[in-house]
Amino acid sequence: MMNSTSKGNILRRRMAETGLAHVMAAHSPLSARLAEAAGFDGLWASGFELSALYGLPDVSLVTMTQHLDMVRAMIERVDLPLVADLDTGFGNALNVIHAIEQYERAGVAAVVIEDKSFPKVTSLAADGRQELVRIAEFQGKIDAAIKTRKDPDLIVIARTEALIAGLGEAEALTRAAAYQEAGADMILIHSKQKTPDEVESFVRAWTGSAPIVIVPTAYPEMTVDRVKRLGKIKLMIYGNHAIRPAVTAMQQAFATILRDGGIHNLDKAIVPVEEIFRLQDMDAVKRNEKKFLR
Ligand code: SPV
Ligand code: MG
């Protein structure tokens, strides 16, 4: 049954209306709220960002439960549709079934499942050990996701890591076509090359009907103009652009305090405490105190 108010439906409509939706990484309700206020179309519940938040590498150490808890916490504090990074689906097709049940109930708009073996190694690490599962095995995972979702608008995105694993464009195209055949709504093609060439070549060669998703972290020259010229790409994920600016800001602030012998210089350069109050909805506390504390 179609559900015109589901988050999946909202994100589908956004892609149809704009031709390209912009989805910002988030690792906390606070970062999610900042992305929403900035005007992004959706949030990317990035496994990389959450791993980094725990001070851990993105190699399947953070559990599904930890990720799901954060997804729920973010969804409680924003209206934006959320694209959940399910990594490998946390195991085989049986784990995928469980994950889809849980994440759909949590209210996500979309899920991304990648064709690496569990435990995975983060994609952008130079010389990372990258092992892919068999095509048929991954088709089973996509099929399981499609058949488990209750809302047909929940977007199931199949992510191929063929280029990341160095297997070449032909393998990436074969896998993408097989995943579309298994029912995937969209194909995420990932690349760690420093220029957009590899992904542009894949997009030009792609003849499938499933729209493409990209995460241009490694190839920042892939501007929105360039993406639009290519066509076929309907979703752009800014993969780690919440955690990296946060780290830059904290590193600079901490160094400034120790260098200056106090917070006096830094104080002028950072948001006042009142801005944090605003982001926490302190106004609601005041309003409710007036109304209900008797
Ligand atoms: C993530 O943000 O967790 C991703 C994108 O999966 S990447 O880290 O580039 O693999
Ligand atoms: Mg990830």
Description of the molecule:
By secondary structure, the chain is an alpha/beta fold. About 50% of the residues lie in helices and about 15% in strands. Strand 1, helix 2 and strand 2 form a beta-alpha-beta unit. Helix 2 packs across helix 4, helix 5 runs parallel beside helix 6 and helix 6 runs parallel beside helix 7. The longest helix is centred in the last third of the chain and has 18 residues. The chain is globular, with a radius of gyration of 20 Å. It starts with 6 loop residues before the first helix and ends with a helix. About 40% of the residues are buried. Magnesium ion binds next to helix 3.
Main features:
294 residues; alpha/beta; 13 helices; 13% strand; binds sulfopyruvate; binds magnesium ion
